[in-house]
Hints:
Elements: H1 2-24, E1 38-39, H2 41-54, E2 72-77, E3 82-91, E4 95-97, E5 110-114, E6 117-119, E7 134-138, E8 143-144, E9 158-162, E10 165-168, E11 182-186, E12 189-192, E13 206-210, E14 213-214
Parallel strand pairs: 1-3, 3-5, 4-6, 5-7, 7-9, 8-10, 9-11, 10-12, 11-13, 12-14
Antiparallel strand pairs: 2-3
Subcellular location: Cell envelope
Keywords: Repeat, Signal
Signal peptide: 1-24
Amino acid sequence: MKTISVIRLFIIYMLAACTISCNSNVPSLEEPKDTAPHLNESDSLAMVNIYKKIGPWGYDWDLKDIQTWGGVDIALETSTNQYRIVGFNYYGSFSGEFPDDFRKLTELRVLGLGGGTLSGQIPSWIGELTNLIYLYIGFNQISGLIPPEIGKLTNLEQLTIGNNFVNGPLPEELGNLANLQKLVICDTKVSGSIPKSLAKLDKIKNIVFHNNQLSGEFPIEILKYGVF
């Protein structure tokens, strides 16, 4: 009886070992994770909407292939392993009003819109794009006031608004642009006096006010930085 029990235990052991061995050779059905970085979904949707609203422009875009998105710059956000849109700079055939989808591109460093027929006003939400270091709006049909919220762009180094129909006074909040190095307001209908708050811009190197409707006394305090 002992012999039979030993044989039985041996058979059970061999069957278990065979089962483990066979199972170890079965390929896993779990799909490998894709760790390659992708374009941030919100950025992608916003840029596609912008293209649909004011495009097409000079490049032939495939809306599913970021490599074809001429004028768009991306950078890898290592904390999320996602590409973010950090720049849109194009001089071409835009049309329509200033798309509010730009406000969703929260990592924008560069925004340049020139040479089109963009209409409407510079939106107040422009102040939400606090990472901007370069803002150019030129040779379009933008009208209305320059919004005071533009003063929230404290990382801005260069601001150009030209060859548009913007009007009214320059906002005092321009003096809040602590990192501004170049300010160009030209060929517009901007009127009134030059804000004295510009004297606070201690990093400013160049100010251009050309062909506007500015009037009043010139704030001599601005000259202490040797600009103009």
